[in-house]
Hints:
The longest helix is centred in the first third of the chain and has 17 residues, at 51-67. Helix 1 links the parallel strand 1 (10-14) and strand 2. The strands form 2 sheets. This protein has a 5-stranded parallel beta sheet with strand order 4-3-1-2-9, with helices on both faces. Helix 2 (51-67) crosses helix 3 and helix 8 (163-173) packs across helix 9. It is globular, with a radius of gyration of 18 Å. It has helices spanning 20-29, 51-67, 78-91, 104-110, 122-126, 128-137, 151-156, 163-173, 194-201, 210-223, 245-258, and strands spanning 10-14, 35-39, 72-75, 97-98, 115-120, 143-147, 180-185, 205-207, 236-240. 44% of the residues lie in helices and 16% in strands. By secondary structure, it is of the alpha/beta class.
Amino acid sequence: xxxxxxxxxxxxxxxxxxxxxxxxxxxxxxxxxxxxxxxxxxxxxxxxxxxxxxxxxxxxxxxxxxxxxxxxxxxxxxxxxxxxxxxxxxxxxxxxxxxxxxxxxxxxxxxxxxxxxxxxxxxxxxxxxxxxxxxxxxxxxxxxxxxxxxxxxxxxxxxxxxxxxxxxxxxxxxxxxxxxxxxxxxxxxxxxxxxxxxxxxxxxxxxxxxxxxxxxxxxxxxxxxxxxxxxxxxxxxxxxxxxxxxxxxxxxxxxxxxxxx
Length: 261
């Protein structure tokens, strides 16, 4: 028997492990839902590809999740949201599709002094979606955006406590130590190196998009009458385009780790 629409899983995807930081918050917000997480690690990171490549890759992953019977999609990647969300929403207009964007608005509204540093992938910073967000909620006096090339790819490798991770972060944003008091983590990979960023920049406040994304997903599911009404604990399944036992074990490791974030 086919499951009812409300009992079908929610598809969550990213270019790799980063979206697991979003997945953890989705599970917290919607504990009775089933989730399917797909990491496109064979093509990670998206943030250093062209827009056309990201649209093509994202469309392929979305179709895979729909073929698995997913009732909604979460684009757990800032780059993919910026480049491909409009295309996916037009193609799959019948279903809820929720994306993410850098949490610049809450960071600007919450700060009391100093500058806000936005750390994001080169493509996220470059695309018009982020530039519009920056024009709306930022200024050169208050906000600085830094493209952090290579950081997501390094996080994909795991072992983020290694000294080279701090060295890489220092090379990217070390010049802002003591000059910013708030950091927007504009890539879903970056929450996994929060402590390493703090080691470089000092005692800064962090903002990411996980909670806002989870609340938006609940609203969209409720509006579409697709919330799962059972009281059973939901399940989480992991899939990857780099389909190896080692890669899936890494996903589960990051998922367990994300519970402490």
